[in-house]
Amino acid sequence: MKFSKPLIHICLSVAASCAAFSASAQTAIYSLDSTAVSAFGAGSYGKVTLTQSFSDVLVSVSLRNDLNFVDTGSHSAFSFNLGGVSSASDITNITFANGLGSVFGVSSGTTNAPFSKFTYEINCVSNCVSGGSGGGYVDPLSFKVHNVTLSSFNQLSTGHGTAAYFAMDVINGHGNTGTIGAISAGVLAPVPEPETYAMLLAGLGLIGSITHRRKQKTLTA
């Protein structure tokens, strides 16, 4: 069976759409696997999930059940490395599951001991509820970084201390505070398949419908 040029164009359009979706939905996961705080026990302590959303990256940080974020002032609530960003204004939509009315902002250049120097940090800037130390801020932490790719995050902190991709100050259920970090490279996760197949099937269904109508016209001609 020969397809007409319009049908070929539809097929190519569907394939291109699926390819674009696959590229935009790529995900990298970093395990929070390092700490110097013995009271936290063995890891993993949570994970950082990066999802490419076209020209932006969506960041989601989830912690182990007994841990919450804390902002004591001696460490950063969350610190990370990032290349290709011209200013902190490219980092937006910062939210915790329970922000407790606090307002969070981004600043550049920080050391989050025992980890070394990071390019950016997120901390509370106003209405900080006792630095979050009264139980802390509940995960997940989420924010968006504009005009970057997953590879922009794939760089270790530099200088004195342990090199890490991410680090954050946390508190456990017993009131122990300290820093945890991700010192292992991120792992690329499979592209979400159901949405891709849904797009492909929708396109194929359209092709089948057009082909069927053409056959019907040929039979009745």
UniProtKB/TrEMBL annotation:
UniProt keyword list: Signal
Pfam families referenced in this protein's UniProt entry, alphabetically: PEP-CTERM
Domain Ice-binding protein C-terminal: 190-214
Signal peptide segment: 1-27
Keyword field contains ATP-binding: no
Keyword Signal: yes
Name of the protein this chain belongs to: Ice-binding protein C-terminal domain-containing protein
Lineage, top ranks: Bacteria, Pseudomonadati, Pseudomonadota, Betaproteobacteria, Burkholderiales
